[in-house]
Amino acid sequence: MSTCTQLSDFMPAVAQGRQRWTPDQQAHLQDCDDCAAEWRLVQLAATLGAGEGEAVDANALTRTVLARVRTARAARPTRWRTAWLAGSVAAAVVALVLIPRLHPSRGARLGVTVASATRFELPVLDALSASQLQSVLDRLDDPDFDASADVEAPELDALDSTGLQMVLSTLEGT
Amino acid sequence: MSATELESDADLVRAYQAGSEQAATMLVDRHARAVARHLYCSGADRSDLDDLVQETLFRAFRNIESWRGEAGFRGWLCAIAGNALRDEVRRRRGRVILPLEAQPIPAPGGPAADLTMRDTAERLRRAIAQLPRLQREVFLLRTQEGLDYSAIAAALGTTSGAARVHYHQATRRLKDAIR
C-alpha cells in the first residue's frame, strides 16, 4: 500500500481527533500536493454541517415517530387481508370465464357458461364481510369488466401455488 | 459517562422491541442530530430537515427487525436517510430545493468568489450533493462518522473493496471542487 493510500486511510481518524500524525506522515503531507489537498478536504468535511439538528427535541420526536409506527402497524393487517380476499375472488371469477373457453368439456361438467359465470356461487364469498362483498360487487359492476370478451388474467399471475390451488378447489367444490 | 450512555445501540434496540419507549427515546437522542447533519450534507434543504429526520426515524422504527447489527446503528440510519432524501427529491421533481442534479458551483478565484471558510463549505456541500449516491454516502460516513470500510459496506449493502473505491473516487472529485 502506498504512502498516499496509507495517509488517506488515516485522515478521517486524525480529522476527528482520534489519531495523530506521525512525524513521517507530517513530512509527507508537506511534500505531496495531492495528499495535502485531500487532507484539507477531509478536515473541511469533518466539520461540515456540525450544528445541524441541535434543536432536536428527542422526547417529542420519539412520541411522534412511535405514534406513526403504531398507526402504520395497525393499518397493515386489514389492508393486506382485504386485498388478498378481493384479489382471490376476482381471480376466481376470471378463472370461471377462462376455463369454459380453454376446456369446453370441463366447463360443461361444471355447469358453467360464460353467460352464467357471474351467477356461480363461490364458498369463499361466505367468508367476506358486507363491506368486502360490496368491493367484489363493485368490481363486477365495473363497466370495463366484460365477461364475454377475451380476458387477460393478471390476477392469476399474482397468486402463488397455494392461492391457485384454492381457486381450483373452489371451482371443483372440494 | 452516565449509565444510559453505557448502553449499546443493540441493547437499546432490544429494549425497544420488548416495549420500552424510553429506549426508543434514547436512540433518537443519540442519533437524530447525526441524521440531520447527514441529510444536510447530502443536499437537503434546512427547511426540510425536521420532516426528513422524522421520516427516517419512522422508517427505521417501523422496520427495526431488519437491523441485525452487522452494520452500526448510525450507519444503518444514515442509509435510510439517504433513501428518504432520494424519495423526497423524486416526489418534488421539477421543484428546486437544493437539486442533486448539476447546479453551478461558484468558481474559486472568480471575481465574485468569496474565499471565506463559509463559502468554501457551501461549495463542498453542493459538490457532495452532486456526487453519485454511493460515493456521497461512503464519503460522508467515512469523514463524518469515522466508519471503517467494512462498517460502511454493511450499512450500504456493498463490499469493503467497493466502498474504498467509492471513497477515493469521491475525494478525487471533491478535491477539484474546492481547489
Essential attributes:
heterodimer, A: 174 residues, mainly alpha, 8 helices, elongated, B: 179 residues, 9 helices, globular
What does this entry look like structurally?
The complex is a heterodimer of chains A (174) and B (179). With 174 residues, chain A is mainly alpha-helical. Chain A has helices at residues 3-15, 23-31, 33-47, 58-102, 104-110, 130-140, 154-158, 161-172. In chain A, helix 2 (23-31) crosses helix 3 (33-47) and helix 4 crosses helix 6. The longest helix of chain A has 45 residues, at 58-102. Chain A starts with a helix and ends with a helix. By secondary structure, chain B is mainly α. Helix content of chain B is 65%, strand content 0%. Chain B contains nine helices and no strands. Chain B has helices spanning 3-6, 9-17, 21-41, 49-62, 73-91, 117-129, 133-143, 149-156, 160-177. In chain B, helix 4 (49-62) packs across helix 5 (73-91), helix 7 (133-143) crosses helix 8 (149-156) and helix 8 (149-156) packs across helix 9 (160-177). In chain B, 42% of the residues are buried. The model of chain B is unreliable at 99-103 (pLDDT under 50). Chains A and B meet through helix 1, helix 3 and helix 4 of A and helix 3, helix 4, helix 6, helix 7 and helix 9 of B.
